[in-house]
Amino acid sequence: MAVYIAFLRAINLGAKRKFPKADVRRVVEETGASDVAVHLNTGNVRLSSRQRSCSAVEARLEAAFAADRGFEVPTVVVTPTELAAVVADADEVAREAPFDVAAHYVTLMREVPSAETVALVSHEGEGEVTAVRGRAVHLMLDGTDRYHQVKLPAAVDRAMGVWTNRNLTVVRDLAARWGAGT
Predict the structure, then answer these.
(1) pLDDT digits (tens, 9 = 90+) for 74-128
(2) What residues make up the domain containing 116?
(3) Other beta carbons less than 10 A from residue 16's beta carbon
(4) Total domain count, the chain
């Protein structure tokens, strides 16, 4: 059985998108997955599955989540090796930032972006810079209170397809818990 890490998007936001950790675990186990662990209430799940690809796991989980919850739960799945690489890339891009990085966020995309999407998403502005590495977009800021001031154009959102984001602290913690070698 292969190990995967699933990142659920937009759960536990407001009254209509509730999906408690215990329910997430139950639904994932009902798909036939084993060794299921859920970290935080934001939708971070480790599982073992007989499925042979991230896309197959995504499809199975999304169908199960929709059936159980009655709303779509976009899901991005990576392998432990991919997650460890995201953290290594984070360290590299932070060293290349033109300022001391005070806050670092990682957006995980379902698909590897096209060259056009990379060009659209990559930017450097006052106090913020993004860098695309594989299926991850690294947003680095010079101040921790600026995250909600970053406004990406709708074209960027559409070009990125299915995605979800986490702060680097959570990604680093999950890589340590569930990364390559677990």
Answers:
(1) 999 999 999 999 999 999 999 999 999 999 999 999 999 999 999 999 988 888 9
(2) 80-178
(3) 8
(4) 2
